[in-house]
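Predict the 3D structure for this chain.
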Amino acid sequence: MTLDLLIRARSALLPDGPRECSIGISEGRIVSIGAWSDPDPADRTVELADDEVLLPGLVDSHVHVNEPGRTAWEGFATATAAAAAGGITTLVDMPLNSIPPTCDVDALGQKRAVAARQCSIDVGFWGGAIPGNLAELRALHDAGVFGFKCFLLPSGVEEFPPLDDGGLAAAMREIASFDGLLIVHAEDPGVVRDAPHDRRYESFVDSRPPEAENRSIRRLIEFAADTGCRVHVLHLSSAAALPMIADARARGLPLTVETCPHYLVFEAGAIPDGATQFKCCPPIRDEANRDALWDGLRGGVIDCVVSDHSPCTPDLKQLDTGDFADAWGGIASIQLGLPAVWTEARTRGFALADVVRWMSQRPAELVGLGAKGKLAPGYDADLCVFVPDAEFVVDVAELKHKNPVTPYAGRTLTGVVRSTWLRGVAINDQVGTGRLLSRGEG
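Done. Predicted structure below.
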């Protein structure tokens, strides 16, 4: 057989660890892994530089693309271009911040129609669980969404209201009936307070204490035990919740959890007053909490690391006033997640294989993408060519997401993505040809 492409890498991160190899690709999939010098016939051969490591393309299961409806904030063309520049080959779009939100099959159809022919990488979709759409959940599941997102307190947009305890229990029973997945923004409205109108980051953090997350997660664990519903906790900020999550897992409950690069890189004490580009919900907490989240990754309690890319227009960040109460809460970072996490991880004794497990393999497993997340025969030839020892300073003018706001601006990071490949084709050569995925595909 003549291969479409043969890639020779002095280091490729395979499931059993990094090694020198050649990877044969045909019809968009990996078909062979051999010795670096194997003389396999191929239509094209690419030899990576000695400083480059071949990784599986990353999978980001938490991205707010915001199109249609709030396309000034972001859109499929810009979000997927930024993702590709950061080594991401698959993302799953959140159901809110777009108008309409993805809470029924018609809205899913509208979003898929808008996304078609705009995406540089593969894109899937979450559905939403909100008051009044219980009867829509099974139909959305059958239409191919990867699961259902809900909030337990106001989301920040009025068209995506939160579930109360009764609505949460009903949604979990319904989703469990077809073995779906519920993903949850877990903050308790009874604990969260209105942030004061000032520039102090400390005041904002105090308004959303760890107990807001802890109480909601405790309730989710109780409801999961009652209903059998698979539950995933989004963007964990409070490390104090880790023991109860570990205990729930030990009892066999179907509970998973993610955290985000900004919780692993930044710490509250270093955030200047008025720096609203750092505002997100739940908030970035103190240094001890950050260290404990890393311990949660080390111990396997935290499953994956995803971006929660949630951009907006610069005016909504209130950069002129620095008012944390009025500023939109969201971090724009989809292009920077891999170097941001690697920069911090390597100083803590983690290997690149750990980062790839958190940011590629485990997110793919979470959403059931059985052909993504590994360099192995039978998997999609989704690839990231990464230089782990190269440094760069983040210049917002070079970022590909729509609005030039990010808390990483001016920060020195280690690890450069030199190229990203989707099904064996360099993404620069196929802009706009990413596939729209349904649950069970990819």
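The mean pLDDT is 96.
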